[in-house]
Amino acid sequence: MKNLIVLCAILFSGTSCAQQAKDGTKSTFPAAEKIQKQESEWKKELTELEYYVLREKGTERAFTSPLNNIKEDGLFICAACKLPLFESSTKFKSGTGWPSFYEPINKVNVAEEDDLSFGMVRTEVLCARCDGHLGHVFPDGPKPTGMRYCINGAALKFVEKE
């Protein structure tokens, strides 16, 4: 819990970790403030694979991410800007080869766009703060949402709860 509090304080200095949403519900994390950097800055900060996935909309090979095997309690954050994206409690084994979640930590932390590449229509998932490509979302996930956020492990970092 201490790591979460510290992470929240670092990520959102000057803002509260709990925020009242428009629909009256409490949000664990506030809406993402945009981060804009030159591509040269991202290249310096990210590994080659992270840059390829997050900035060039690439995909890591299936079943290669060590995050597939994470079972500990914690948060999956954006590898580029550290925005909290998914809680480990929403992770499930989809069999696809990529970390999969049935919902983001907060809908405002992810953006969705139509992806018409490869001759098909898919919904791309992006980090709402840095516009990094995370993966795609499909309507074939488990309850309670029925959604499968199929996310590149290279786009995420895991922060374990203490």
From TrEMBL:
It is an enzyme of class 1 (oxidoreductase). Residues 39-161 form the MsrB domain. It comes from the Bacteria. Pfam families: SelR. Keywords: Metal-binding, Oxidoreductase, Signal, Zinc. GO terms for biological process: protein repair; response to oxidative stress. GO terms for molecular function: peptide-methionine (R)-S-oxide reductase activity; zinc ion binding. Its EC number is 1.8.4.12. GO terms for cellular component: cytoplasm. Binds 1 zinc ion per subunit. The zinc ion is important for the structural integrity of the protein. Residues 1-18 form the signal peptide. Zn(2+) binds at C78, C81, C127, C130. The active site is at C150. InterPro entries: Met_Sox_Rdtase_MsrB, Met_Sox_Rdtase_MsrB_dom, Mss4-like_sf. It catalyses: L-methionyl-[protein] + [thioredoxin]-disulfide + H2O = L-methionyl-(R)-S-oxide-[protein] + [thioredoxin]-dithiol. Its cofactor is Zn(2+). Belongs to the MsrB Met sulfoxide reductase family. NCBIfam families: peptide-methionine (R)-S-oxide reductase MsrB (TIGR00357). This is Peptide methionine sulfoxide reductase MsrB. It comes from Ekhidna lutea. The lineage of its organism: Bacteria, Pseudomonadati, Bacteroidota, Cytophagia, Cytophagales.
